[in-house]
Specification:
Shape: globular
CATH superfamily: MFS general substrate transporter like domains
Distance between the termini: 42 Å
Radius of gyration: 20 Å
GO molecular function, one term: transmembrane transporter activity
Subcellular location: Cell membrane
GO cellular component, one term: plasma membrane
Structural class: mainly alpha
CATH architecture: Up-down Bundle
Protein name: MFS family permease
Number of helices: 19
Keywords: Cell membrane, Membrane, Transmembrane, Transmembrane helix, Transport
């Protein structure tokens, strides 16, 4: 009940209801798209490596474009930038659906279109997330961040639950077409948000966009809390999140099942994330959030080891739910810390780095695991990655007091860390 009370405070604001309603719609379409495209890549190639490459092409553009997008989000109209980026995502999905329905899709075309969609998403993420402090009062910001993650994970439950049966009955193009419609809805509702001008722009444009991008990287790297926690999150995402990006090979090779099992596993991730997100939201305070960010990776590593070590599908589903729960605790915690500790003028650039971590690092992990899986099988590379993640957790725990002091105290002057 405490969790629902906390989230209810965030939803009591008109802007938040519009924002999260559009987010739920768009992200449900996104998860339907991801399930369909992942299965499409598996059908086209039958290769774990190529499934990893497709995931990489969707997520990896964040490496190049996220820092640039963050700098743009700090100087442009964030509402307008959000609309344009979401429209581009919807049009890209429509193109994929049409090509698949017409029978013209190849793995090469799919890779190109996934790169284009990844570029659009790299611009949408910092613009949209930077609006959040303008949607609710500062006291409700932790609840809004938790609600943002919960919305994503509710979509991660609903999307696959819809996509699996739809793929089995009608093929892969209808779920992708639904994603196009979902992003069209999100685009059309964005102008309904009423955001103060101060929150729509971080600062007036300067002469050098590249210089602002470098300033953002330097600010995050020199911050005594943001630099370490974002670096820790990046390492964890490379080592542990790749499994979730290349599920089709695990479904078929480890469990001997098909598309409906893929949807069930993905939905299990969402259910676990939803439950743990409610627990995190019920805390309603910043103190202790850094510890949760570190311990969430510990739990994610152990659950991932259980998932790849078994051939029993029921236990695999349970581990998937635990992976979703642990990943949600970690993700909500890091995003809350990034929102709270960032200088407002730097927020878009800091959140673009978080977007880079959540998109590019799992893509790199998926590419590595997919390639290693072709040579060594699927299990051993993942178990090695889990062992390395435990070393990262030990590093995080050793430095926990210093990082927590920098992130959970009063916001620091942004100029002090440039």
């Amino acid at each position: 009940m405490a969790a629902f009370s906390t989230l209810g405070r965030a939803l009591s604001h008109r802007n938040a209801r519009i924002f999260f309603g559009a987010s739920l719609t768009a992200w449900t379409g996104l998860w339907m798209h991801r399930i369909a495209v992942s299965w499409l890549a598996w059908e086209l190639t039958g290769s774990a490596f190529w499934v990893g490459v497709v995931a990489f092409c969707d997520l990896a553009p964040a490496v190049v474009f996220s820092p640039l997008a963050g700098a743009v989000a700090d100087r442009a109209d964030r509402l307008r930038m959000t609309m344009l980026a979401q429209a581009a995502i919807g049009l890209n999905a429509a193109a994929i659906a049409l090509l698949v329905a017409a029978g013209w899709m190849t793995i090469g075309i799919l890779l190109v279109l996934e790169v284009l969609g990844g570029i659009a998403a790299s611009f949408a993420q910092p613009a949209r997330q930077s609006l959040m402090p303008g949607l609710v009062p500062r006291a409700d910001l932790p609840a809004a961040v938790a609600l943002n993650s919960l919305t994503f994970n509710v979509a991660r439950f609903i999307g696959p639950a819809l996509a699996g049966p739809l793929i089995a009955v009608a093929g892969v193009w209808p779920p992708i077409a639904v994603n196009a419609l979902a992003y069209a809805f999100a685009t059309l509702t964005t102008p309904m948000l009423r955001v103060d001008e101060a929150q729509r722009r971080g600062h007036a444009a300067t002469a050098s966009l590249f210089g602002e991008m470098v300033d953002g990287l330097r600010y995050a790297a020199r911050h005594p809390g943001l630099g370490p926690i974002l670096g820790f999150a990046a390492v964890a995402a490379i080592l542990l999140r790749g499994v979730q990006e290349i599920l089709p090979p695990f479904v078929e090779r480890v469990f001997g099942l098909g598309a409906e099992a893929l949807a069930l596993l993905t939905a299990a991730f969402g259910v676990g994330a939803l439950v743990s997100g409610l627990v995190v939201a019920a805390r309603g305070r910043l103190a202790g959030t850094t510890r949760l960010a570190v311990l969430g990776v510990l739990a994610l590593g152990l659950a991932t080891a259980g998932f790849v070590a078994t051939g029993w599908f029921a236990f695999g589903v349970l581990c998937a739910a635990l992976m979703g729960a642990a990943g949600s605790v970690h993700g909500i915690s890091v995003q809350t810390l990034a929102q709270s500790a960032s200088d407002p003028a730097m927020r878009g650039r800091v959140l673009s780095l978080w977007g880079l971590i959540t998109r590019a690092c799992p893509a790199l992990g998926a590419l590595i695991l997919g390639a290693a899986g072709e040579v060594f099988g699927l299990r051993w590379p993942v178990l090695v990655a889990v062992a390395l993640s435990l070393l990262a957790v030990a590093w995080g725990l050793a430095r926990l007091p210093r990082i927590a002091e920098a992130l959970e105290g009063p916001p620091q002057d942004g100029h002090a860390n440039r």
